Amino acid sequence: MSKGIEPSEKLKKEMYEFYVKVFDSSFDHQKKKNLLTSITGWEPWSWRVVGITANAVGAIVENDGHARVKSQLVRDHFFQSRSKTSNNLLSKKYDYTSYWREFWDNDRTIIMTKFEHSYVDKIELTGLTKENSESFLFNVEWENGLFKSEKVAGFHFTYRDEGKFILNNFKNRIIQKKWPRSFNKINNQPEFYYSKIN
User: What is the DSSP letter of 133?
Assistant: First the structure.
């Protein structure tokens, strides 16, 4: 498995040049946002994964690290949405250094379950909160090359790489729990949820 590396200075400057052209264009706002996504997407470092939720670890453990679990998982720009980043970049013309910082700092993603993704803003349901992310999130060093973007869509997941890594590092750091009886069950809610333990 190849390591994750930042794009070269040459590529970063080329992306910035495209950004300036898009910013100065007469395209409408939504088309500009779509073009900004195209400029930075579909690279091995795009949507780099820096963490994984306890529930996503639980799903991987339930599937013994097998790649079939991938259909239950998504990458999410949890810390700042892609839409917000694009809106920021289109609100004013950034210089090169500021452009790269705004993009790179906010292209980080975390692996979560599809259920968590569906209710990402319902903290009472998922427990996902930016203010206390260490309570449910395991750190993943993106430089290790895990969960890299595929060429067309999605992310890389194999038992040999991502599956074994999660099992070896986080399997014994989660605990399975049943939803409280008082909790109103909703669509697609899994039978169990997982909490992070030290």
Answer: G
pLDDT digits (tens, 9 = 90+) for 21-63: 999 999 999 999 999 999 998 888 999 999 999 999 999 999 9
Residue 151 CA neighbour count, 13 Å, CB half: 0
Does 2 or 160 have the greater pLDDT score? 160
**Is the pTM higher than 0.90?**
yes
The reported pLDDT for the residue numbered 181 is 67
Cα 166 to Cα 76, 87, 92, 146: the distances in Å are: 18, 34, 41, 10
| Dist. CA 7–CA 86, nearest whole Å | 19
b/e per residue 39-72 (b: at least 16 CB within 10 A): bbeeebbbbbbbbbbbbbbbbbbebebebebbeb
H/E segment holding residue 112: strand 109-113
Contact 194, 135 (CB under 8 A): no
Distance CA 20, CA 98 (A): 13
Q: Indicate the domain borders of the chain.
A: 9-196
Q: What span, in angstroms and rounded, lies between the C-alpha atoms of 44 and 6?
A: 9
